[in-house]
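Input chain follows. Return structure tokens only.
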Amino acid sequence: MRRIHYMTLVAVIAFSLCPGGFAQELKITMGLSPYQVAQCNAEGKGLILCSGTWSGSNGPLSVRILKEDVPLEDWRVAGAAENGQWLAIIDTLPAGGPYTVAVRIADTITSVDGVLAGDLWILAGQSNMQGVGNMLEVEPPHPLVNMLAMNGVWRPAQEPLHILAESPDTVHGTFNSEEERQAAIENAKNGPKGAGLGMAFASEMVRRTGRPVGLICTAHGGTSMEQWNPAGREAGGTSLYGSMYAQVQRAGGMVRGALWYQGESDANPEAAAVFREKFEGFIAAMRRDFENPDLPFYYVQIGRFVNPGADPAFWNRIQEIQRACEPSIPRTGLVPAIDLELDDAIHVGTASLKRLGKRLANLAERDLYGGTVQSGPRPGEITFQDTPYGKQARVKFTGVNGRLTAVGRPAGFTLSSGPDGPPISCVYRVELPADAPDTAVLWLQSVPENPHLWYGRGFDPCVNITDEADMAVPVFGPIPMNPAQ
């Protein structure tokens, strides 16, 4: 037999006690909805600003929070009704849930189920964030992970997260009819592609922190930094930035941080020349517009692209700019994708997206919850050494968790003569010595004039070096080397 919900029963009783059986009407119109995730403050309390309409006389508004039909608190005043409108601030939601949030004016009660309190994360960028992984063995739903879908409605999170056709914003698509839109939505829900990294990240964060996660979906495939221009904030749904900004406002205006995966569309001469300026400006604008100068911003360095015959120079340029931005912009972190498998020529595969989500979770846990995982290997000092067996270049890395590791033969390093010279085949062996866990030893057949070191050069390099926390070595280069040492 179907169990009657506690608050439904209370509402029925309240209705029956009204003179003549005519209940006064209490509606929630903004700020509180089923499956919503409220961002917690520093004290671990979720905050919700909500409002609605009321057909009765002016007076106080009270709220009460329940979990599994058990009240966590007595009714308490949280707002007031005046001239047919009411406004309330709910600021006592403990991190966790799901909760029923009940709102009462006089003897009339309405309630919302499935509310969580935890951390909100923006998902933004282009296709690898939108999700184009094969819909095979996707990250399963989690009871403490909900999503603000692209239609602005909260619901339990499941792949695919981003369904562009659901969005009313024209920047995400236009349709000739509602039937055409619904057909596009169904195709996206039931198609072979659509897995992303957001679910894996969220599930991992819940596992590590116990706090629910809300994912705010805003990504759109094939988009450039110029299309994410913060100048479009006031343009609303005709702009990617404006659409993202509006989504965050629907979610309450506060977020824990942002996840970003973009750059492929800027790997060309014109866009690469201004990529760093636009990227840094984008981060600064988000921190300003969301009123958080320390907003955590974690991003993915673009990975592989099977693109035979094309020049990879600007692809590598974007990767190097992304690497260089990490130490120069506070409260940011980069995770590489260069070592991951693809599901097509350019999109990270579903199994690898799960690894990528965990890499991002390592950074978020480190900065926000005292996690011990470091950033992962970053190139540091390079020295040369002559041995009885040949010449070595020793590359010492910072940020290594445990030791450097590789499945099979360590690979990925090349040298060039000058910063723009072609790759030179002179590295014949790479070792990860047991007595130097943060160092890769490159055995060199020769050293070119004006040597520069690269890792992961090209569109589709063979690279496989990570550390014991599965944090990968990023693409880097050209880094000048000094063989006179």
